[in-house]
Design brief:
Double Stranded RNA Binding Domain; 43% helix
Length: 115
């Protein structure tokens, strides 16, 4: 199945900010949010368990159009498996924070050695 994408890299490079933030749709819920400052942010709007949600995918050009489309497809696959991509990301971040908090630092080791 060939998807008809609306955005091109050239269009993203040439986009000019406006007085208010606006969106440029790519299709399937993926869009670029253009802020008044000119920054371009990738967003994916979807519905999970009857609630509308938005997943932030990153900032252009750090995340290219191709990469944003890949991240969008991964999120859609998660939804098909019954997994909310936003909740999955939050769970991963919570696990990383817990691991970081449990990690012994040099300061901890030095304090233990000195006592």
């Amino acid at each position: 199945m060939k998807l008809a994408f609306a955005l091109t890299d050239t269009a993203l490079r040439r986009v000019k900010p406006r007085v208010a933030p606006f969106k440029l749709a790519d299709g399937g819920g993926l869009h670029a949010l253009i802020h008044t400052s000119g920054s371009v942010l990738w967003r994916y709007n979807y519905v999970y368990a009857g609630k509308a949600k938005t997943l932030a995918l990153g900032q252009y050009p750090a995340i290219s159009l191709k990469e944003a489309r890949q991240l969008h497809q991964e999120a859609k696959r998660s939804l098909k498996r019954g997994i909310d991509p936003l909740e999955a990301r939050q769970a991963v971040r919570a696990d990383l924070e817990a691991a970081r908090a449990a990690r012994k630092t040099f300061k901890d080791a030095a304090a233990g050695w000195r006592s």
